[in-house]
Amino acid sequence: MRSRVQVHTAPVVLALSSRHDQAPGDGWELLASVAYRPVHAGRMAAFDTMNGLAGSAGEAVGVFGRQAVPGAPAIELDPSRTYDVRVWAQGRSDSRERFDAAAPGADTERAPALEAYLIVFAPSGTQEPPVPAARESRHDRLTRIHGRSPLNSR
Question: Which of 59, 63, 82, 87 could make a disulfide contact with 24, Cβ separation 3.0–4.6 Å?
């Protein structure tokens, strides 16, 4: 997702819900919808494009009639399920105009959120759980890296 206002921190909520097509509340617009198949352990985390793992939100966000309180920017998904993923945005349609109307030099990092995003994972089916990759032995890793077996194993 790309914010319309590049100089602020927008809260992002990751949620697991059975509500496939229901909007999370007033003022939310659907940005995208995709099918998702978890791999490995099924852990999904939000990342900031510049700083790695995203930080916790500073305030609660109202979704589906209740407040999503700040917490870890990650969600655990069942790797034996498939999911319909819907990405919602709130405040995005006029966020740039509100940002431009703010006082010049205003601290947008501490200002109330100009935009908020919600990523909803709704179970849609099943899949075979992924088989964990076989662990590579030290001998095999050294052979792969150096192109031949280590001296002490020839």
Answer: 63
Residue 91 is encoded by which pair of tokens?
């405040």
Amino acid at 135: R
DSSP 113: P
Query: What string of DSSP letters covers 62-105?
Result: EETTEEE----SEEE--TTEEEEEEEEEES-TTHHHHHHHSPTT
Q: How do strand 12-16 and strand 116-126 relate by DSSP bridges?
A: parallel
Beta bridge partners of 52: 48
CB atoms within 10 A of CB 12: 19
Please state, in angstroms and rounded to a whole number, the distance separating the CA atoms of residues 4 and 98.
11
In this predicted model, what pLDDT tens digit does every residue of 53-106 receive, in sequence order? Answer: 676 666 777 777 777 777 777 888 888 899 999 988 887 666 556 666 666 665
CA 35 vs CA 1, 13, 45, 95: distances in Å = 16, 18, 17, 28
Q: How far apart are CA 93 and CA 28, in angstroms?
A: 10
Tell me which residue of 135, 130, 134 sits closest to 39, measured CA to CA. Answer: 130
Residue indicated by tokens 């617009």: 29
Record the pTM. 0.66
